[in-house]
Amino acid sequence: MPWIGRKDPEAFEVFYDRHGGAAFSLAYRILGERGAAEDCIQEAFISIWRSGGKFDPTRGSVRSWTLSIVRNRAIDVLRSKAGKAPKMTFDDDEIIESRPSEELTEEEAMRNETATEVRGALSQLPDDQSKVIQLAYFGGFSQSEIARMLNVPLGTVKGRMRLGLEKIRGELAEGLA
Amino acid sequence: MNANEHDNRLEEVAAYAIGGLDPDRVEELKGHLAGCKRCQEELRWLSPAVEALPEAVERQAPPPELKQRLMAEVRADAAAEERRARTEERRERAESRPGIGEWLRGLNVGGLTWKPLTGLALAILVIAGGIGYAVGNGGGSGGAHTIEVEPGSNGIAAKVVTEDDRGELHLTGVEQLPKGRVLEAWVERDGIVEPVPALFAPDQAGRASTTIESMNGVSAVMVTREPAGGSKKPTTKPFVEVPIES
Predict the structure, then answer these.
(1) Which of B13, B19, B48 sits opposite A136 (nearest CB)?
(2) pTM of the model
(3) ipTM score here?
């Protein structure tokens, strides 16, 4: 992202247009409130704007980097709100894009396909595996916290998390094959 | 490490990938990852699954106002950055180029001493061969602002009228110029003397005027006699100097 070094607002606007929707959706999914999600996105994107090119292309895509920043910030907000439980449902059957399909770019279409596969994989996971993954990723809970929350041994949480993730990964690999 | 222990590590790799590893285990796992190819491969293998998780979230359209707020902050940030860069550039220029005081000292005309303008303390108008006084720091109506300088011993009066960013310099009592000479005005900004592009000459009645396109940051307006075509730097002492209040 050379524009970060150049501090080009027009390029940044294009960047926001491309990833802002997914970022906002993720923040909303974690925080469960539109106002809090908006604040989270504002802070996350400003930190990206001011980061001056800390993105390392060898460690993943711009999108996954951006979404990981948003996720971390949202989890921080969540943790700072003591006693606030994360939203815990996956609305798998909801449409993922409101725009007509002919307006989607190839890249977006691929993402939608990935999203469909991941949703499919999550819906096929045993509930206990899906739950630990959602609590960890969208709730920001550690394995020990999840074990206490679900009242199961730590080893069980570890096993469910790994099995669940590997199943999702396997589904993605099959989708690409 | 036996197979069971390593399986435990692989479970921790999955938790680490998803951000769910207990904080007190993270550093130790990172140390293990650095030297374990199998765990590195597991992390690489799982990464696409983790990266895909946010894509599976139900889409929510962000409100347009969010983008407006964000871009307003970004643009304000960029503008501030630009201002900082310009200030820095000016500062560097100021350090590398002589200010009015320095070139006046360098001129050493007629053995006169000259004190550079230092803010409002110096309201004295230096005129070649005499001294005049700045008689007011302003007047005028509406957005216009006038600074007048009474005639000194050389009989030249000066008036600078500013409106918005623009300035007009009016002189009276100016002697006719010898052939091949013009009047050139100068402005001082941040200690740097810059020429005013519009050269000028007195009319038969001894009146002379020129326009200063931008008065932004100007602390003094000066006039010198220069060779036809003007000069990049003053070659004579100013015979008019008008301090400008900020």
Answers:
(1) B19
(2) 0.57
(3) 0.77
